[in-house]
Amino acid sequence: MNQTAKNKAGKPKQKQKGFISGSSAPEQKISMRVVEESGKPIQATFNRTKTSPFGLFNHDAAERLQRSGPNEVAHDKAPHALVQLALSFKNPFVIVLLILASISYILDVHLAEPDERSWKGVIILLTMVTISSLLRFFQEYRSNKAAERLKSMVRTTAIVLRRSNDAANPQRQEIPMRELVVGDIVSLQAGDMIPADIRLFASRDLFISQAVLTGEALPIEKYDTLGAVAQKSADANPAADNQADLLDLSDICFMGTNVVSGTATAVVVATGANTYFGSLAKNVVSHKRIETSFDRGVSSVSWLLIRFMLVMVPIVFMINGVTKGDWMSALTFALAVAVGLTPEMLPMIVSANLAKGAMAMARRKVVVKRLNSVQNFGAMDVLCTDKTGTLTQDKIILERHLDISGNKDESILQLAWLNSFHQSGQKNLMDIAIVSHADQHGAAAKLLQYSKIDEMPFDFVRRRLSVIVEDQGGAQLMVSKGAVEEMLAVCSHTQQGEAVQVLDAKARTALLEKAREYNEEGYRVLIVATRQIDPAHAKAQYKTEDEAQLVVRGFLTFFDPPKDSAAPAISALQEYGVAVKVLTGDNAIVTLKVCRDVGLDPGTPLVGQEIEAMSEQQLNEAVKYTTVFAKLTPLQKSRVVKALQANGHTVGFLGDGINDAPALRDADVGISVDSGADIAKETADIILLEKSLMVLEEGVVKGRETFGNILKYLNMTASSNFGNVFSVLVASAWLPWEPMLAVHLLIQNLIYDISQMMLPWDKMDEDFLKKPRKWDAGNIRRFMIWIGPTSSVFDITTYILMWTVFGAGAMYAADGGSAGQNIMNSGWFIEGLVSQTLVVHMLRTRKIPFIQSTAALPVLLSTAIAIGIGCYLPFSPLAASIGFVALDKSYFYWLIATMVGYMILAQTVKTIYIRRYGQWF
């Protein structure tokens, strides 16, 4: 539980999680509306909201929705297209290019002599900025639209009472939560999200989790006041005190919180932005979201490259200035080198990959709510999952109904039917199985002479549910069913036939042993118990404290067969480096049996009571060797997830119930299903339209493929750019002029970057997909230093070739003019561009390119076109204007030989690198 801090008045100030503490003036105004309803006679609330306990007429609800707008709060949504366009230019690499363009303008246009002014550098830089930013905008705009379409597939609904125009009797309707209006009468049960700010007027054992507003993990009880509390005076108004008091109002539930247990009926008093949640959300969306591991990874790599640029560019400037004596020309060339080191396409590549990954997952029935979770999905190396519905078919069958000795007893089915049929909360699969089984047995299995009086709904602490019924003579009977140990804790006797005996230690041990035997056979076991209510103590409403002195009547055994797909899916996940751990509230023995059936080695289980007694350090150690965690509470599931994260794992959690919400929130990747509880779907990052581990395995592969293509661009671009700079340093120290003009470097970089636009459509080698992948800036730095200079070897041979074979040196010796420089520039431009583009195929895989691994067709075409353009430029009509000359045709024989040598050397260095460091990307 979170610690509280004392404010100046000495009262505890509630800590919030995910929202901004304190109350602004608008929030206090909204809070006043809620407070004005609290404690008043319920009829006063009905009058103000112009409704009744029977709900609104449909036409009235439609009019109110038209006036007040949808029941939605401010949330993270894509900004206007023009804002997105402006934000596309907000990137460190784009800012670097704009600064370089400004300097180029000052040097080449503003300060230059009229006859020497040149806009080429400025135009090329601005072209690169425009292409990069527009492509990023286009990709992010498409991905945001796609994300909205995907999220619209996941609906959250509310149950309301509505009346048709000519009908007096209200009908229960399930409507989208956004269509709720003030005055609607809503029904709530365990698992529901509170759809608006509401005033309770009927409730039973209602416990609400307000963790989304307060950060407090433990739920609090809410109940209707039925007008028993007098209207609060202004000076006692909780809104004027602090928000903790406001959230403690017993008859008010707030939008965004969720029902842990119990049932209720309430009237909507505020919707959308007028709710307390809505007022907070306005502040939240105006604040920057906490960075994810993906964001931090991109940022760390970006600044690594910028720091590298800040070191290398001054070195190039100084060497050129000292050796050539022309400091202005040296500065221009250094700026071009800075451009060459800038991976300006990184934002576009990232956006395109994530969007492509999300859409590919959608085709595999995986809805991505947050795009960055695509990479986290691929990085996941531990998947925590519940047992029911994931490893099993989620189709419970009531197999047997037995007395305490294990004999079939029809009366146990009758009692179970009374409990399951009359309970009004969220019916779980076992309740459905009991009612279905009784239907098959006919009227004999149903004690129709009983009518319901009250119930104590199921919760995850008591782990039992009790119903009080009354026969036609007025005699009341409490019927309870629940988990074995929790039921025995409130039982005092056993009954077989008409014989009732005290539940002593021996009898308790015998019952536990019997339940254990059923568990080992693979059955889930519940105990059914009853208590005849003494007429003198009969009443209309009961509390959980009344669950005492119960008599054990017998057992119910259920069977949930394993899914046929579970075993191959677990095998596939393990093959891809994802360890599967089972976190369940169910019995350890049943869970072990199911795990063995699906091929998962369960080892020694860890149960909730053991976890409760452990320190954080002890739990961090225990989770390393544990596969099955059984009989867990929601908070214990969350503790296990955090312990795994503390050990350096990227943890995914698959859950669909209200008890899974804390773990879904704390996991690196929260995964739920479309049929899950509202709070689970709202908390999750990813929604599965099919509850299957096989779907997850496909999602993991797609996530890794997406991340792999991002890493390809980073590693290839960083190493190629470093190689070019290294070559420039050598040339600057040796050649009498720059080996390539600044405009040549800019054109080369532009062509290369455009060729990389197809990388998101590339394939990944199967061996890359087998292991989880994370950001590693250190490996990118090492990759640059190892692979970059490989190309420099052949850049230097090209300098020598152009200086000797093609006469650049002789021309310089003859007249010192530009003819030799033009030949040198043209030859190195082609070789540099061809090698830089060809290296894409060398470095995209750890295998032998073209033989063992071939790039996807879009990448083959884009690189081929880039090479073609680069080879054509010195022969084009533009050649003279940009300082190129047509080369002798024999140059291309030398180029082919150079490229063959380069490919052999690159493959050799790659092999040594992999052997030394055990990884490629």
Major sheet characteristics:
8 strands, mixed
Q: How many H/I helices? A: 33
The number of domains is: 4
Point out poorly predicted stretches. Answer: 1-30, 227-244, 283-290
Give the overall form.
elongated
Question: What this model shows, in words?
Answer:
The protein has 921 residues and is α/β, with parallel strands linked by helices. The protein has four domains: 33-61 and 158-227 and 244-284, Calcium-transporting ATPase, cytoplasmic transduction domain A (Distorted Sandwich); 296-359 and 701-917, Calcium-transporting ATPase, transmembrane domain, CATH 1.20.1110; 366-392 and 563-689, 3-Layer(aba) Sandwich (Rossmann fold); 397-559, Calcium-transporting ATPase, cytoplasmic domain N. Strands 3, 4, 5, 6, 7, 8, 9 and 10 form an eight-stranded mixed sheet that branches. Residues 1-30, 227-244 and 283-290 have low confidence and may be disordered. Residues 36-109 form the Cation-transporting P-type ATPase N-terminal domain. Residues 1-30 are annotated as: Disordered. It is a multi-pass membrane protein.
SSE map:
Layout: E1 5-6, E2 12-13, H1 25-37, H2 42-49, E3 56-57, H3 58-68, H4 81-87, H5 92-110, H6 120-151, E4 157-163, E5 171-176, E6 185-188, E7 197-209, H7 211-214, E8 220-222, H8 238-241, H9 243-247, E9 252-253, E10 258-270, H10 276-285, H11 293-324, H12 327-340, H13 346-363, E11 366-368, H14 373-379, E12 382-385, E13 397-403, H15 410-422, H16 429-441, E14 451-456, E15 464-470, E16 476-483, H17 484-488, E17 491-496, E18 499-502, H18 505-520, E19 524-532, E20 550-559, H19 566-575, E21 579-583, H20 588-597, E22 606-607, H21 608-612, H22 616-622, E23 628-630, H23 634-646, E24 651-654, H24 661-666, E25 669-673, H25 678-683, E26 686-688, H26 693-734, H27 742-755, H28 766-769, H29 777-804, H30 808-815, H31 818-843, H32 857-872, H33 891-917
Parallel strand pairs: 3-4, 12-21, 12-24, 17-20, 21-23, 22-23, 24-25, 25-26
Antiparallel strand pairs: 1-2, 4-5, 4-6, 6-10, 7-8, 7-9, 7-10, 11-26, 13-20, 14-15, 15-16, 16-19, 17-18, 19-20
